[in-house]
Specification:
Length: about 375
């Protein structure tokens, strides 16, 4: 049984007891109005009011349970955004505020509010509850602010030019972990702070590591090794929220990013679109790699390894380190060689960028090479 169901059963039980007691109290209060009823009629009145209270308790329990769980989740999320120092100082401030409230309430008990018509008997208890809540919250607030004042003083001493990026959190998708480039990006300093790895993402990676397929097993083991190596470079937090109401891992990741108010790291284009529709910031490593590709302008020269012939006559095809295809005119006979070429044009396609170039070799050099090739063939 999940925690939510357990809490729901507990709340239902409490509300059933409370509703039954309320019905019994109302039956006792109204007993004097039914002197003419027989003993059986009074018993029926008691039972009907108790059953009515139980039914009302069952009706109120589910929405109250959902409200209470949301309040607890919101409180837990707010605590997660605080540092350990803020939580400890806030708790100390809360205790100090309760101590002050105790002495204030002793003074309030000495005041007689009974002279106030109609509501005099309720003013004293109301003020005691109000002062307790107010002073406790004020103590917690000022306690947590003491950490801020201390941090601000340290900042002034060390210099305002330094900025701490350690509190930034990133929710990680399975595709990013399996991709393997995350460690190199962390080394460059583009990403720093805390990586939030959910339990269901770890389960996916573990399933790949235990897969009977060789390729999936290698990817899963590499992903686990990547997480292990990242522990020395930045903080890794394993998030245990299961989100049982959501069926897919993508939906759970988007919900987790929303709850933590953190960007989502992914290479999945479909997940990126779904997250963007729900106002979740997405960082795509493929988009980053595409953005940092070298830009070659027409007229610039580059060295390229010709790997295969092109579709058109005389063309040779090579690839840059980032996978960009380069189509070189007059380089068909240079397959397997590294040649110098001149960029003529750039074309952006749906699959990526293509570079068109022409072979920069001189006609005399080409003629000499063709002559040597023909002599080699004759021999």
């Amino acid at each position: 049984m999940s925690m939510q169901k357990t809490v729901g059963v507990m709340f239902s039980f409490v509300f059933i007891i409370f509703g039954g007691l309320c019905g019994y109290s109302i039956a006792l209060y109204t007993e004097g109005f039914y002197h003419s009823l027989s003993q059986m009629g009074r018993m029926t009145n008691f039972l009907s009011l108790i059953l009515l209270g139980i039914l009302l308790g069952l009706t109120v329990a589910p929405p109250f349970t959902r409200l209470a769980l949301r309040a607890v989740d919101a409180f837990a999320l707010s605590l997660q955004r605080l540092s350990v120092q803020e939580v400890l100082m806030g708790s100390a401030g809360l205790l100090f505020g309760l101590i002050i409230a105790f002495f204030v309430n002793l003074a309030l008990r000495q005041i007689d509010f009974s002279s106030i018509p109609a509501v005099g008997t309720y003013v004293g208890p109301f003020l005691i509850v109000l002062s307790t809540i107010f002073l406790a919250l004020m103590g917690a607030f000022f306690g947590s602010r003491l950490v801020f004042i201390h941090s601000f003083a340290e900042l002034l001493e060390s210099g305002a030019g330094q900025r701490n990026w350690g509190d930034q959190r990133f929710v990680v998708d399975t595709s990013v972990i399996i991709d393997g480039r995350l460690s190199e990006i962390v080394d460059t300093g583009f990403i720093s702070g805390t990586l939030v790895v959910s339990r269901f993402v770890l389960d996916e990676v573990q399933a790949k590591a235990d897969s009977p397929r060789e390729s999936d097993r290698l990817r899963g083991k590499r992903a686990l090794d990547l997480l292990d190596s990242l522990r020395a470079k930045m903080t890794i937090k394993v998030e245990q929220r299961p989100y049982p109401d959501l069926k897919t891992v993508d939906a759970k990741l988007v919900k987790l990013a929303q709850d933590l108010k953190s960007p989502l790291l992914t290479n999945d284009v479909n997940l990126q679109k779904v997250a963007a529709l729900q106002n979740v910031k997405v960082l795509n490593i493929n988009a980053l790699a595409k953005a940092v590709k070298p830009i070659y302008l027409p007229g610039e020269s580059l060295d390229i390894q010709i790997t295969r012939p092109g579709k058109e006559s005389g063309q040779g095809v090579g690839f840059l380190d980032d996978g960009t295809m380069v189509v070189v005119d007059n380089a068909r006979k240079k397959v397997g060689r590294e040649v110098e070429c001149i960029v003529t044009s750039l074309v952006q396609t749906a699959s990526g960028r293509m570079i068109f170039a022409r072979y920069a070799g001189t006609p005399s050099t080409d003629a000499n090479e063709e002559e040597k090739e023909s002599e080699t063939t004759q021999k």
